[in-house]
Amino acid sequence: MKLVTAIIQPEALETVQKALVRHGVGGMTISEVSGYGRQRGHVEVYRGEEYTIDFITKVRLEVLVDDEEAEALTGVIVQAARTGQVGDGKVWVIPVDTVVRVRTGESDSSAI
Q: GO MF annotations for this entry (predicted)?
């Protein structure tokens, strides 16, 4: 099993969610996160004063899938989230050793 994690723009969440549902994803976890990458934050002007915003609000999306689905799922997320602008996000895949559904005790692939 693999955990596919994506950090994307909040504006892209609905598009990515719809693409994942069309792809057949049955569940996902979403978190609001803050951070920065190459863009290193940005400057905003409020009432004539400039403020540096170091951390930018992003969305963290996590989907647990079987090994053979990870690459295809990564492509779906990248295609749906891409705008071509700095800050579009990142996607990474990590191996998962064990998953257990708490309600039923099912484990591994049957728990996804």
A: ATP binding; enzyme regulator activity
CATH number given to 2-110: 3.30.70.120
Domain layout of the chain by residue ranges? 2-110
Average pLDDT over residues 57-82: 96
Cβ atoms of 35 and 56 within 8 Å: the answer is yes
CA distances, 74 to each of 39, 49, 77 (Å): 23, 41, 5
pLDDT in tens, 39-67: 777 777 888 888 887 788 999 999 999 99
Distance, CA of 8 to CA of 109 (rounded, Å): 27
